[in-house]
Amino acid sequence: MYRRTLLTGLVAFSTVGAARAAGKTPLFSGLVTVANAQHFTDLLSRRVDQVVGLSVRITRNSAAEFAGKRYLVSADPDYLGITKDDIEIVIKGRFKPQGRVYPVDGFFKVEPGGMHQGIVSFGLIRTAAPPPGQVEKIAL
Q1: In contact, 27 and 136? CB cutoff 8 Å
Q2: Are 69 and 103 in contact (CB under 8 A)?
């Protein structure tokens, strides 16, 4: 299991690294769940002052996922927050749930948000899409 997780992480890192080396904006797509939320928040936290694209569906957490796995998805009229362990991502905007998921589509600049009660926070601010041909799609 550990080897598979490590290998998956290395493959994802090399794919993302290739997009960055090519000067393309990564467009992350897929379903964010308690199982891959740490990977998702890590990817975004390493891109301060960079633009990223998101075409994701973020699943709401259950009480057990919050208590046992430190996974929390919170929505407010002006933002959507996703916290996994010690990283919080706050996406500015209005997001409405569709069933158990929040769809998030668009391009965002990643900004540092500081530390709050031991949790490192990052804000995603909506921005213009890069020119056609400058986007690298990356599945989560």
Answers
A1: yes
A2: no
Residue 3: strand, helix, or coil:
helix
Q: What are the C-alpha distances in Å from 107 to residues 77, 93, 117, 121, 126?
A: 19, 12, 28, 18, 6
Sheet holding 135-139, edge to edge: 71-76, 79-84, 87-92, 119-127, 101-116, 51-59, 25-32, 135-139
Amino acid at 46: R
Strand 101-116 and strand 51-59: the pairing is: antiparallel
75-133 residue pLDDT tens? 998 999 999 999 999 999 999 999 999 999 999 999 999 998 999 999 999 999 999 89
